[in-house]
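I'd like us to work through together how a protein chain folds, taking it slowly. We need material for that, and I hope you will provide a protein of your own picking. Go ahead whenever you are ready, and we will take it from there:
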Amino acid sequence: KDTCEVNKINKICIIVFCTFAVTTGVITCGGESNKALGEDKETPQMQKSTPTGSLMRIISSHTAKMFDAIMIGDFNTVARKPNEVTKASKVIMRMFFPDKGEIDDWFKETGKDPNDPEAVKAMKNEFEKYSKAVIDSADRITEASGNKDIVEAYENFDAMVRNACFACHKVSRSKWPKK
C-alpha cells in the first residue's frame, strides 16, 4: 500500500515538473514566436460598432456553426441557428435605429450627420435591405432543415452568404479583397 502511494506521489511530482518545464519554455521562447504566431503581419481592418458590423460578427458566429451542422447533417442545429440570426438581426435593428429615439454616436463614424433625417433614413433603408435578405434566407434554411433536406439547406445557406453577406460587404466595406 505504501509503495502505491509513493508511486502516485512520484507521478504527480513528474507531472508538476514537466508542466513547470513546458511553461518555462513557452515563457522564455514566447517573445520570439511573433512570426510563428503571425503577429508580425498587418492586422485586419477593424470596424467600430455599426449595425452592419455588429450583425456581421453575430452572423459570422452563427453561420460558422450552421455550416458545421449542415456538413454533418445536424438538422436541429441547422434549424436553430437561423432563428438566432433572425432574432439578432431584429434586436440590432431596434438598437441602432430606435423608433422613438436618437441615433447614437456610431452614426457619426459613418461620416454622415446624425441630425440629418434623410441620411439616417437612407442608412436605415440600406441596412433593412440586407437584414431582410438575411432573415428571408434564414427562414428558407429553417424550412429546408425541417423538411430534412440538407442539400436545400446548404443551397439556401450559400445564397444567404452570397446575396446578403457578400452583397452588403461589397457596398459597405472600404477595403474589399480583389479577385
